[in-house]
Amino acid sequence: MNLAQAGTESNPYLQMQRRLDKAAELLDLDKGLYAILSEPAQELTVAIPVQMDDSTLRVFTGYRVQHSIARGPAKGGIRYAPDVHLDEVRALAAWMTWKCAVVNVPFGGGKGGIICDPRRLSNGELERLTRRYTASLLDIIGPERDVPAPDMNTNEQVMAWFMDTYSMHMRATQTAIVTGKPVGLGGSKGRREATGLGVAISAREALRHVGLPATGCSVVVQGCGNVGGLGAQFLQEMGHKIVAISDIYGAAYNDNGLDMPAVLAFLAEHRSLEAFPGAERIDNSELLQLPCDVLVPAAIENQIHSANADSIQAKVIVEGANGPTTADADRILENKGVFVVPDILANAGGVTVSYFEWVQDRMGYFWEKDDVFDRMERIMVEAFAAVTAAAQHHQSSARIGAYTVAVERVAYCLQMRGIYA
Ligand code: NAD
Questions:
Q1: Which regions of the chain carry the CATH code 3.40.50.720?
Q2: Tens digits of per-residue pLDDT, 215-269?
Q3: Which of 23, 177, 271, 296 could pair with 166 as two cysteines, CB 3.0-4.6 Å apart?
Q4: Catalytic residue positions?
Q5: pTM of the predicted structure, to 2 decimals
Q6: Which letter does DSSP use for residue 4 in this model?
Q7: Architecture field, domain 41-176
C-alpha cells in the first residue's frame, strides 16, 4: 500500500498517531502534553530552484519537519523520492523523536525530504539541488538545532555537500551538522553497518525473550539494502539460516539457506537478485508469507497490513524498516501471538551510532569500530529490556511498550522545561 491509495491505513502519520494515543491512554498522559506531542513543533516547506544541465530551470519542493526538540536537537534523515509526502515526513519525524527516546540518546526528532526522482538527475543536478535545499534550511538547522542524516536515496556524498554548504555559510568547517558522512570526513567507523547490526542484536534478544534457540532459526528478509542486506549477513554470522531475501523486483528463496556474502556480492555486480544462482524466484508478497522463525521487513512502509497480516507465519518480526506494519495489522499479529520488535527499537542502532558520530565530531576525537559496536550493543540491549519491561507492566505489545517508554521520557523533559511564554 502507499499514500496514493485510499484509506487511513496507508497514512503513516495517522498510524503513528494511533500508537501515540494508546500509549498516552496507558500513561494517563496530561492532555496538554499530549496536545504538544501530537503536532510537529515546526515544519518548513521550501521551493528549490535548480538550473538543470540543459539550462532549463526546475523548481523542486522540499520539506523539513521537526517533530520535537524537547530532549535535544532534532535528528533525522533526508529522503529523495518522487512520492515524498508531507504526512510521510511528519510520521518519520515523530518516529525519530520516539526512537531517540527509546535508546535514550539526547536528540529530538526530525525528518526531511525532496520530491524528486534522483535516478533521473545528473550528479551535478543532485549537488545543486542539495546545496540549495541546505541553504533554504539555514535558519532552522545546526549542530545544536537540527542534525540531518541520509535516508532513502541520499548517501555519504549528499551529506558531504550538505556539510560543505552549511560550513561555507558559517565560515568554518562544521562536521557535526550532519551524520552519515564519509569516514574520512568526520563520519563514524561502523555507521554503515550500525542499523543492520542493531537489527540482528534485536532479533537475538527477541529470540531469547520468546524462548527460541540462539542459533539455527530460519530467517526471511524483505529488502536487501543497507538494513536488510547487512542485517541478514549479521544474522547468518550468528548461526541462523537466511531462507529468503528480496529486493524491489522479487526474492531469492532457498529452504537450505542462502549464502549472504555471495548474495551481497551478486547484488553489487548485477543490481538485482533476479538471476541469483541456486535459488527459487518468488515475489515480495509470497516472501512475507513464508513459514519461518524470524521475518525482517527492511524495505518500505505499510508492507504488513490488514489484508495480509493473518497470512504471516513468522513467530517473530523484527522491523528493520520504518513503519512496515500498520496499526490494524498490529492487532491481528498480537492475536496470533507473533512477537514484534517495533521499528523505533529494532532499527535504532543507526541513530545510536549517528549520535556517536555527532559526539566524535564535537570532540574531534574518533573511536575504533569495536568501541562503536560495543557501546551500541550495550544501548540496544538496555533499550530492549526497558521496552519489554514496559510491555509487561502495561500488559501491552512490545510496540506499545516502546511508545510508553518514549512518550514518558519526552513528556518528562517537556514538563521539567515548562512552557516559555
Ligand atoms: P536501501 O535503499 O539501502 O534498501 C532498500 C531495499 O528495499 C532495497 O533492497 C530495495 O530494492 C528494497 N525495496 C525498495 N522498495 C521496495 C518495494 N516497494 N518492495 C520491496 N522491496 C523494496 O534502504 P535502507 O537504508 O536499507 O532502508 C530500508 C528501510 O530502513 C527504510 O524504511 C529506512 O527508512 C529504514 N531505516 C534505515 C536506516 C539506515 O541506517 N539505513 C536506519 C533506520 C531505518
A1: 192-346
A2: 999 999 999 999 999 999 999 999 999 999 999 999 999 999 999 999 999 999 9
A3: 177
A4: 111
A5: 0.96
A6: T
A7: 3-Layer(aba) Sandwich (3.40)
